[in-house]
Amino acid sequence: MSETMIALVTGANKGIGYEIAAGLGSLGYRVGVGARDATRRETAVGKLRAVGVDAFGVPLDVTDDQSAADAAELIERLAGRLDALVNNAGISGEMDPGWVQDPTALDLEVLRTVVDTNVMGVVRVTNAMLPLLRRSASPRIVNVSSSVGSLARQADPDTEIGPIMAAYAPSKSFLNALTVQYARQFAGTNILINAACPGLVATDFTGFQGPRTPEQGAATAIRLATLPDGGPTGSFFEDDGVVPW
């Protein structure tokens, strides 16, 4: 079995996900670029290879059970194990002007779609990859969350947390809660799992609004994906430290 560390980043064809893949690749990881769209996926793989990253494409729709199973089978065939899984793929769901999702007028289908990707997709992919992660000496799982999922910050009238997002923000609270449950299940093992907030990053996800670059947004996830043994688990981090739940 290769000693090269193996990582999978979902939603890695652009934005923060691409920069997480690039960052891990620069550290010597062989990186699976998980993405639904074949053209965008292979374009990202080509860009990464052009800068020296050992990248390979992983067809992956996080909302599809068979796609997740097929992705795990591909990684097993190509690499034999997985050392780091970064669950980055996510969607905001349909928004009203001003990036608002009014809970009193929320379309339940929008909520279902957001939860299926941002929450169920993470469970679907994580559980499909667990047999490969368990083959690693130091398996790491990172769930890319958001500070808008912090109930403490959302409930604090003195904290500026942005517009009301009744589908997206609770999906990240749900993801954070799941991260804790996984950490409890993994207690006593070598699997470390944490949530990462990238901050407000200027990507197409935000309409290119935000003070942070994708490279800056990727930094916390990269750090958590490469934690040493004995590092934190079941926690929520941003650049400045721990984010309150």
UniProtKB/TrEMBL annotation:
InterPro entries xrefs: CBR1-like, NAD(P)-bd_dom_sf, SDR_fam
Top-rank lineage group of the source organism: Bacteria
Which UniProt keyword terms apply here?
NADP, Oxidoreductase
Q: Where are the transmembrane segments?
A: none
Q: Name one Pfam family in it.
A: adh_short
Q: Does the keyword Nucleotidyltransferase apply?
A: no
Q: Which family does it belong to?
A: Belongs to the short-chain dehydrogenases/reductases (SDR) family.
What is this protein called in UniProt?
Answer: SDR family oxidoreductase
- Origin species, per record, is Streptomyces galilaeus
